[in-house]
């Protein structure tokens, strides 16, 4: 079995895809179910979404061990997986809200029918007002959740961009550090070469001086013997 970070990442990604497919299938089927069955199905969806959150956490852990050259592509896949999970959660909330509204409307209709059979002419209007108020509150809550989710996704994209920028800057710094190390090595080599050249120059100067002294002594010796004779 391949236990490399990229293989584990792909495996967890496949698990998440299967979980989300199951969630969407359940949400497709829940539309035509009775209230009790729908509640059970939605509770099962909540459990599966919690499992999907755990898989996302595993993906975030695995991406830390992926080679640097492959991090960018896998970060994109992680962002896409988070977006898919966010869409599934949004749809689950919408189905849950629609179910709650349907139950509320159904209960209101039942109460309204009972009200029509009573002698109070204001009961039906009060029930309708309460239903409209409850529907408005549910729609406002759903809109706020959607706005919060959008802001969270935008913040996540900004954070991912900052991380990519920091990663690029780190690579530039590491490259500059490598160039400085190479420059230090070249400077040390050049310094050693110059020292050798200076040593060689002094050596040649000493040899030339010795040859000059020897020639002077030789000329003096020759002149001396000629003058003596």
Automatic annotation (TrEMBL):
One GO BP annotation is: macroautophagy
* InterPro entries tied to this protein: SNARE (IPR010989), T_SNARE_dom (IPR000727), v-SNARE_N_sf (IPR038407), Vesicle_trsprt_v-SNARE_N (IPR007705)
Q: Which domain of life is it from?
A: Eukaryota
The answer to whether the entry has keyword Electron transport is no
Tagged with keyword Transmembrane: yes
Q: Where are the transmembrane segments?
A: 206-225
In terms of SUPFAM superfamilies, this protein maps to: SNARE fusion complex (SSF58038), t-snare proteins (SSF47661)
Q: Name one GO molecular function term.
A: SNARE binding
Task: Indicate the segments annotated as coiled coil, or none if absent.
Answer: 42-98
Q: Which SMART domains does the protein's record reference? A: t_SNARE
Annotated GO CC locations: cytosol; endoplasmic reticulum membrane; ER to Golgi transport vesicle membrane; Golgi apparatus; late endosome membrane; SNARE complex
Q: Where in the cell is it found?
A: Membrane
Q: How does it sit in the membrane?
A: Single-pass type IV membrane protein
Occurrences of domain T-SNARE coiled-coil homology (ranges):
130-197
Q: Which UniProt keywords apply?
A: Coiled coil, Membrane, Protein transport, Transmembrane, Transmembrane helix, Transport
- What's the family? Belongs to the VTI1 family.
Q: Which named protein is this? A: Vesicle transport v-snare protein vti1
């Amino acid at each position: 079995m391949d236990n490399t970070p990229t293989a584990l990442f792909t495996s967890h990604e496949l698990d998440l895809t299967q979980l989300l497919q199951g969630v969407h299938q359940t949400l497709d089927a829940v539309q035509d179910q009775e209230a009790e069955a729908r509640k059970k199905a939605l509770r099962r969806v909540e459990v599966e979404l919690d499992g999907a959150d755990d898989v996302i956490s595993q993906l975030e852990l695995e991406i830390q061990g992926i080679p640097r050259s492959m991090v960018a592509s896998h970060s994109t896949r992680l962002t896409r997986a988070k977006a898919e999970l966010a869409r599934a959660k949004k749809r689950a909330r919408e189905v849950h809200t629609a179910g709650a509204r349907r139950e509320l409307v159904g209960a209101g209709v039942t109460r309204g029918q009972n009200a029509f059979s009573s002698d109070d002419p204001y009961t039906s209007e009060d029930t309708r007002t309460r239903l409209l108020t409850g529907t408005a509150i549910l729609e406002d809550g759903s809109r706020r959740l959607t706005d919060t989710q959008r802001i969270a996704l935008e913040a996540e994209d900004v954070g991912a961009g900052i991380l990519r920028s920091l990663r690029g800057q780190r690579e530039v710094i590491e490259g500059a550090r490598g160039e400085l190390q190479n420059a230090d090595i070249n400077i040390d080599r050049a310094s050693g070469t110059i020292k050798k050249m200076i040593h060689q120059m002094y050596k040649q100067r000493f040899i030339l001086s010795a040859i000059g002294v020897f020639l002077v002594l030789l000329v003096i010796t020759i002149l001396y013997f000629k003058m003596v004779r």
